[in-house]
Amino acid sequence: MKNLTNFLILFLISNYAIAQDNSFDIKKIYPIETSHSYLQFIATYMGYAEVKGNFADFYGSIYYDPADLSQTSVSFQIDTKSIDTNNDWRDRDLRSANWFEAETYPHIKFSSTGINEGEDGFSIIGDLTIKAETKQVEIPMQPVIGVIRDIRGDDQVIFKGSYTLNRKEYGVMGKNWSQIKEGIAALSDEITIEFSILGKRINESNLSNFLRNKEKGHGKLYASYQNGGIPDLKDEAMLMAKDSLLDAQHLNIVGYMLMKQDKTQDALEVFLVNKKYFPDNAQVYNALGGIYYLLGEKNKAVENYTTALDLDTNSINAQEVLKHIKKP
């Protein structure tokens, strides 16, 4: 569900032109699909052996324009507790105060600030935050092959790269692993990060698959709309809410599909109904932020995206959009 949520946050505005700001095209944001991405690290143990691990839970968004690589932008967040080195004792130690202090610092964050283009690829410049330390880094990237249309009709872009950092500069000390004997450290200070990140935007042909089953909440609501428009949808939503069967994602998916059908005002009505039932749900405000931006109401877009981020600091898609639309 997390992956589906990330894809749908920005789905409503994909393939639509934004009239008010030619420098930013919101359809070129690709939410990260964790299930087809990886983020691993490599450390050297006792001077020779390589120990590998990964972070299982991460999310974010990529802004990518194949015609203008210089506009590429990334917002990215990792759940520190999801560290996995295939050893339970070691993983508990890594989450502890000896290393990442995951309870105090639950996230590792990266937000890009620029791009350096070169003959053999490019690099992404940005702010990396681990624990309480934020440092500017420049991450070498492999050339991007462009946007790929997959067998479901969705658009994908893949970013691959690696970066080496000094863990101690970020306060990841390893208190019990700092000894040096005969010039060899128990664990290297230098850690190499390797990643392959897939950004994916769901298109109409795939989204329609979610709406075919009328036994599902979103399918039932969409069928009610097809039968009697917004009034019937509101009635169905009220009945579902009364029986505790209504979920915020149900109405959002219907709203996204209406956007694909150029029924912009009806889509706005659906999102406002969602706000009525789920006033504290960040995804509701992500959807409202997107449609208001599409309608040219930038101030309302900023307000709703900001609310989404206030309600859920993990709304990295909202963070990435705000990075662009709040520019003077």
Break the fold down into its secondary structure elements and pairings:
Layout: H1 2-9, E1 29-31, E2 38-45, E3 49-55, E4 58-63, E5 73-79, E6 83-84, H2 88-95, E7 107-118, E8 121-130, E9 133-141, E10 148-149, E11 155-166, E12 180-181, E13 184-185, E14 190-201, H3 204-211, H4 217-242, H5 248-260, H6 264-277, H7 282-294, H8 298-311, H9 316-325
Antiparallel strand pairs: 1-4, 2-3, 2-14, 3-6, 4-5, 5-7, 7-8, 8-9, 10-11, 11-14, 12-13
Helix pairs in contact: 3-5, 4-5, 4-6, 5-6, 6-7, 7-8, 8-9
Biggest sheet overview: 6 strands, antiparallel
Assigned CATH architecture of the largest domain: Beta Barrel
Number of domains: 2
Question: What share of residues is helical?
Answer: 25-40%
Number of helices: 9
**CA(first)-CA(last) distance:** 35 Å
Cα gyration radius (Å):
22 Å
Order of helices and strands: HEEEEEEHEEEEEEEEHHHHHHH
Q: What characteristic shape results from the CA principal axes?
A: elongated
Low-pLDDT segments? 1-7, 10-22
CATH superfamily of the largest domain: Lipid/polyisoprenoid-binding, YceI-like
If you average the pLDDT, what whole number results? 88
User: What's the CATH topology name of the largest domain?
Assistant: Lipocalin
- CATH uppermost class of the largest domain: Mainly Beta
Biggest sheet, spatial arrangement of strands: 1-4-5-7-8-9
Task: Report the count of strand segments.
Answer: 14
- Overall structural class, as computed from helix and strand content, comes to alpha+beta
Strand residue percentage: 25-35%
